[in-house]
Write a structure and sequence with these properties.
transmembrane helix; ion transport; alpha+beta; phosphoprotein; magnesium; ATPase_P-typ_cyto_dom_N; about 1300 residues
């Protein structure tokens, strides 16, 4: 066999590569070989593909944007052959030497390595301007001519402490990522090892496949993945334990969906890999796209020599020799997915490590800074500018004065020769004075700010972790803080981007209620209601003279069943072991079991409908020598419906080889129903239909779907009013509903329709449209069977949490991979949407149509009489929107007016792009992304704040997040309490730190007026160092950690207080300037009141300086005291104690000769004038300060009221814009949302659909007449050339000439 194919391009319809046999040529002409190739590489309907490519070409003409870049990249992988790669399969020696070696399978998601940590982290530390500033100041301190610390770098210790604390925090956070990487890299997988891997394989294992670590896997190797294992890399499926090569995968880590998806091996690879020995002998070459991030796209081909040719000889298009087949997304198994309900699969590794699609969709971890940190940098720059101005002024003034008065100053000060030389030189004198003032002003920008914030945020994070109200008892998990530097950002969130599955919902459906005929069944299991229903039941039973077993009434038979395994052996009365059902209503069972009841036959028809109208696959497993049956459903909704039928006595127990559906009744009787056709659900149809032949040979058409779709298709209006009333009740409870309908047709009607249907599937032009038209022809004149109500179980308290967050002024965006209908249903369930909201849906796929939809939506918005609005946009539409700047701008303007935006069918990369769109459009607004799966990591890392929920979808989101919580409801406490208070307190801390250092340094500056700005210090050097470390640190620490403006309960129930963060009331430029103003005017007062009285009394420099120092300490500590909202004895101890400690320290230093305060503070403390001046100064400053704070607080409250008033006026204005008649008209037209409860995708039940196709081919070979049954045809050759395609599958196996290859 020649393993090196000469293929030069991807397979294109109608083209054949060089050096390929007749079989392959024929295969390429038809572009498909079997059912696994229903999705053609460059399939049929080529004109549609050309239109898509033309749209892509047009879209890339605009400026670069996320959508444009995505589309351009996607188009390039179709057209650019240089991105394709050749992979030798299971043949390490045949690697192309001209091709670069493939990437290994080891992953690394941490920020740092052991060798990169120091340089990378230091670089990040010194991106903070404050750290750079103090580093420069430290260097200046060591210059002898300008030092004020005898050449000692006194700043080194606090600066080193700040950097060290940050480093330790980063090490702890990054070590968690390293642990995660190591766990994944060291996971085990079975593979056929290459010779150079044998030393790493488990030599004790018997058999061909050996266990290797994931990190050792190489491209081209064949691996064997067992049930419930994760795929170690991106694979091509060769075969599974299923005879048809079907396997089921769970992709929740990729797209967030927990319902299983089927993958099907190519029919030519199945007979080649029936055992481990076959797999070991399988060799070939894959020619496919290079690594890319497109999860739902794969194109390639594989050339190989079949080992079991006799199994392929029956294929009309196989002539022996090497075989080339096309590969598409239906054969790809992606890393991050797991194998479910399949014992094992064989697969070929195609993309490894960081080249796998999930890693291509995972962005690099980036450092995040809070807005306070960013704005602090800006304020530092402003202060640096002010500092340079002041020191330049002081140095210039001192230099001029000294030069002008050189002789007198020289004689008075007794300068040395070197000092005299410097002062005599204007330039040198200016530089020395400038350097001295620069070192004095080193405290102008407080280094203690960085230390204080780091420590404060650390303790805030500790208290978040310790908060018992956000501790998840079920998971034994406290809240985790992984980026404590973002604490204050939690108090400024304006946009929340949320995943749906696992975040808002549990993705667990439960059958709750139903409506059959005129009766409504299903009630709450409250004890009072249970008693009432029991009494009612007894009354009815007496009236109807029925004997009722009291035990059945009391409960065991009708108990709510949740989260237990499905067991065939348990299928008795009592229904133990049935999942997805939470139903209680004894009256239903009374009606079901009473043949004389008017609803008896309607109930049994309803239950039979539930048991038959679906595409559920049955899996049987042996447990303790007992056969247990479980269902594999394409959607959790369908699983709930089929389990509901089983719960009520109609057990769908198997499908036989003829695709008959076997239903076992509660009395043990089994009935067989032949499945004739399945018309699958899609988002346009909003319904699904099955056609079955009953045991009595009646042909029934059973349909289930949305009420808006089913109602117009009913033959009569019988029970419509009762059903509609029930639907409104269901909707009010947030339940998802379906209507069931059916009709009976004759043999003639069915075969006439089936012939039209077959012809439509063979059409080349407008096939999908014609198929849809034929499908529609049989879905009419139905009889209403009933309605179901399913609860999509939400995470605990999601509705209230979202309601409160919206009331706080936060805009909610839900980004989900689900269809529009599913997302809307969940929106209603969790109160994101309501019937009082105007909804706008953008779902078109062409730019012009999207522009029209936006224009229509804007017109409706302007005319709307509703105060709340919601926008729903499809992922495909979003791609077009982001590709054109003018469309993007209009979309963002419109979206900003919405209270809620829901984006559907978005990929993980699109989630991040949506977040980045908002960040780019509104850079001043804070975004938060929350999710629980690996598919949410992009979004989490893109947002300003990323929150991961530790849930069923693994820990990837939690590990990549800034904060990790157990449930969505904890977000309420995290934002409204911890976030708000962290923002308020940290804002005060930053402002206070600037304030207390400015007042400290400016006092020295103002003293320059008395000393000709000679850079003379007025404070003792030891006192100078202790100012930030001891005397002014304790009070602010306590405030920043413990102060609470309002009780926690008030903050949780009154979301209006969250507005301080949304309006940035605590950390604006105005607030900063207010702090600077306070510091400057108070320093002026302190200097003039301190030095003028003592100067007149002949006081010394240090006496006046000590007075100023004490005044500053008292003022700044009392400032904290007056700003504290929740005083305790500890807070007062720290505030008053700091002042007392300062006085005691001054008195102690008065006793030591080395101190400049020696002999000064004693007389000062004995002077009554000292206390009088101090008291008057303090009272004046404190009164003014308190007055300003009072006015500021009142102003803030006033602003909050104004903001609420403006919002209220806007609401009233919008209401007034609609006349009363318009409102009445709108109200009459408005339909209460009933929560359509069916969201499966087409094409995900190949085991069922393939059999139906074969059955239809068989039926086509039978003659029928209008009055007689089918007679077999003599010539059955046609069977090998035709088949029936089930609607809903986008790809077909029809070639251009109409031939069908199956």
């Amino acid at each position: 066999m020649n393993t090196k194919s000469d293929l030069q391009s991807p397979l294109v319809d109608g083209e054949s590569p060089k050096k390929i046999d007749k079989t392959s040529s024929r295969f390429m002409k038809n572009a498909s070989l079997n059912n696994s190739d229903l999705r053609q590489t460059h399939g049929n309907d080529h004109h549609e593909e050309e239109e898509e490519e033309e749209q892509l070409d047009n879209s890339v003409e605009s400026d670069d944007s996320p959508g444009e870049q995505f589309q351009a990249r996607e188009a390039s992988f179709v057209e650019d052959l240089s991105t394709w790669r050749k992979i030798p399969v299971n043949n390490f020696e045949s690697v192309d030497p001209n091709q670069e070696s493939f990437m290994g399978n080891k992953i690394h998601t941490a920020k740092y390595t052991w060798w990169s940590f120091l340089p990378k982290n230091l670089f990040f530390q010194f991106t903070k301007l404050a750290n750079v500033y103090f580093l420069i100041m430290m260097i200046f301190q060591m210059i002898p001519q300008i030092t004020i610390s005898d050449g000692r770098p006194t700043i080194l210790m606090p600066l080193g402490f700040v950097v060290l604390v940050s480093m330790v925090k980063d090490i702890i956070e990054d070590s968690k990522r390293h642990s995660s990487d190591n766990r994944e890299n060291k996971s085990d997988i079975l593979c056929i090892p290459y010779p150079d891997q044998m030393q790493y394989a488990n030599q004790e294992e018997k058999g061909i496949f050996k266990t290797l670590k994931w990190s050792r896997i190489k491209v081209g190797q064949i691996v064997k993945v067992l049930k419930d294992q994760y795929f170690p890399a991106d694979l091509i499926l060769l075969n599974s334990n299923d005879p048809q090569g079907v396997c089921f995968v769970e992709t929740k880590n990729l797209d967030g969906e927990t319902n299983m998806k089927s993958k099907t091996a190519h029919k030519f690879t199945i007979p080649c890999t029936l055992s481990d020995e076959d797999a070991a002998q399988f060799t070939g070459q894959i020619h496919c796209q290079g690594p890319n991030e497109f999860l739902y796209r794969f194109e390639g081909n594989m050339t190989f020599e079949p080992k079991r040719q006799e199994m392929l000889e029956s294929e009309s298009n196989y002539n022996g020799g090497d075989t080339t087949i096309s590969l598409d997304v239906n054969q790809t198994l992606l890393r991050g997915s797991s194998l479910r309900n399949t014992e094992y699969i064989y697969g070929i590794v195609i993309y490894t490590g960081h080249e796998s699609k999930i890693m291509k969709n995972s962005p690099n971890t980036r450092n995040k800074m809070s807005k306070i940190e960013k704005k602090t940098n800006m304020f530092i720059l402003s202060l640096l500018g002010l500092e340079l101005f002041l020191i330049t002024f002081a140095a210039t003034y001192s230099t001029i004065w000294n030069h002008t008065n050189y002789d007198n100053t020289n004689q008075y000060l007794g300068w040395t020769i070197s000092e005299s030389t410097i002062e005599n030189s204007i330039i040198l004198s200016f530089l020395v004075n400038l350097g001295s003032w620069l070192l004095i002003f080193v405290a102008f920008i407080p280094i203690s700010l960085m230390v204080t914030l780091e420590i404060v945020k650390f303790f805030q994070a500790v208290f978040i972790t310790w908060d018992a109200t956000i501790f998840d008892e079920a998971k034994d998990m406290p809240a985790k803080v992984q980026s404590s530097n973002l604490n204050e950002e939690l108090g400024q969130i304006e946009y929340i981007f949320s995943d749906k599955t696992g975040t808002l919902t549990q993705n667990v459906m439960e059958f709750k209620k139903m409506c059959i005929g005129p009766h409504y069944y299903g009630h709450s299991r409250k004890q009072e209601e249970a008693n009432f229903r029991r009494d009612t039941l007894r009354t009815i039973s007496e009236t109807e003279e029925l004997k009722i077993d009291d035990s059945r009434i009391s409960g065991d038979s009708f108990k709510t069943l949740e989260n237990t395994s499905v067991s065939d052996s348990n299928f008795e009365k009592g229904k133990d072991g049935i999942t997805n059902v939470s139903f209680y209503d004894p009256i239903f069972f009374l009606h079901r079991d009473n043949p004389s009841n008017e609803n008896y036959h309607r109930i049994h028809r309803f239950l039979l409908h539930l048991a038959l109208c679906h595409t559920v696959i049955i899996e049987e497993t042996e447990v303790d020598n007992k056969t247990q049956i479980s269902y594999n459903a394409n959607s959790p909704d369908e699983l709930a419906l089929v389990n509901g039928a089983r719960f009520f006595g109609y057990f769908f127990c198997k499908r036989d080889n003829q695709n008959n559906m076997i239903v076992r009744m509660e009395n043990g009787v089994e009935e067989s129903y032949e499945l004739l056709n399945v018309i699958e659900f899609d988002s346009a149809r909003k319904r699904m239909t099955v056609i079955v032949r009953c045991p009595n040979n009646d042909i029934k058409v059973m349909c289930k779907g949305a009420d808006s779709i089913i109602y117009p298709r009913l033959k009569s209006r019988e029970f419509v009013q009762e059903t509609d009333e029930s639907l409104e009740k269901f909707a009010a409870e947030g339940l998802r509903t379906l209507l069931l309908a059916e009709k009976t047709i004759t043999e003639q009607e069915y075969y006439e329709w089936e012939e039209r249907y077959r012809e439509a599937t063979l059409e080349i032009i407008d096939r999908e449209k014609k198929v849809a038209e034929v499908e529609d022809q049989i879905e009419y004149d139905f009889d209403l069977v009933g309605a179901t109500a399913i609860e999509d179980k939400l995470q605990d308290d999601v509705s209230n949490t979202i309601s409160v967050l919206k009331e706080a002024g936060i805009k909610i965006w839900v980004l989900t991979g689900d269809k529009i209908e599913t997302a809307i249903n969940i929106g209603y369930s969790c109160k994101v949407l309501s019937n009082e909201m105007e909804q706008y849906i953008i779902d078109k796929t062409s730019t012009d149509d999207i522009i029209d939809q936006l224009a229509d939506a804007h017109k409706t918005y302007l005319k709307s009489g509703l105060s709340a609005h919601a926008l729903i946009v499809a992922g495909d539409s979003l791609l077009k929107i982001t590709a054109r700047d003018h469309v993007k701008e209009e979309f963002l303007k419109f979206a900003d007016k919405m209270r809620v935006v829901i984006a559907c069918r978005v990929s993980p990369k699109q989630k991040a792009e949506v977040v980045n769109l908002i960040k780019a459009k509104y850079p001043g607004k804070t975004t938060l992304a929350i999710g629980d799966g690996a598919n949410d990591v992009n979004m989490i890392t893109a947002a300003d704040i990323g929150i991961g929920i530790s849930g069923l979808e693994g820990q990837q989101a939690a590990r990549a997040s800034d904060y990790a919580i157990g449930q969505f409801k904890f977000l309420r406490t995290l934002l409204l309490v911890h976030g708000r208070e962290a923002y308020r307190r940290n804002s005060y801390v930053v402002g206070y730190m600037f304030y207390k250092n400015i007042i400290f340094v400016m006092s020295i500056f103002w003293f320059g007026i008395f000393s000709t700005f000679s850079a003379q210090m007025i404070f003792d050097e030891l006192f100078y160092q202790m100012y930030n470390i001891v005397f002014t640190s304790l009070a602010i620490f306590w405030f920043a950690i413990y102060d609470l403006e309002y009780p926690k309960e008030v903050l949780l129930t009154e979301p209006k207080y969250y507005i301080i963060g949304l309006e940035n009331m605590c950390f604006s430029t105005y607030k900063f300037l207010k702090w600077v103003f306070y510091a400057i005017w108070q320093s002026i007062v302190l200097i003039w009141i301190s030095f003028i009285p003592f100067e007149e009394q002949g006081g010394t420099l240090w006496l006046g300086g000590n007075f100023v120092y004490l005044g500053i300490v008292i003022i700044v500590n009392i400032s904290v005291m007056t700003s504290t909202n929740s005083h305790t004895w500890i807070s007062l101890l720290f505030q008053i104690g700091s002042i007392v400690i300062t006085i005691v320290a001054a008195a102690i230093l008065n006793l030591f000769t080395f101190s400049k305060l020696f002999g000064t503070t004693g007389p000062q403390f004995l002077s009554l004038e000292f206390y009088y001046i101090l008291l008057m100064m303090m009272m004046g400053i404190i009164l003014v300060d308190s007055g300003l704070n009072y006015v500021n607080k009142k102003l803030r409250i006033r602003m909050m009221k104004i903001a609420r008033g403006i919002r209220k006026k806007i609401k009233n204005f919008r209401h007034k814009k609609s006349t009363d008649s318009e409102k009445k008209k709108r109200k009459s037209k408005r339909h209460v949302h009933t929560g359509f409860a069916f969201a499966q995708e087409p094409g995900h039940a190949p085991q069922i659909l393939d059999k139906i196709k074969l059955d239809n081919v068989r039926r086509k070979s039978m003659k029928y007449s209008m009055r007689s049954k089918v007679v077999p045809m003599e010539n059955n050759d046609v069977m090998s050339r035709s088949t029936i395609t089930i609607s809903g599958q986008k790809n077909s196996n029809t070639s251009r000439n109409g031939d069908i290859i199956f």
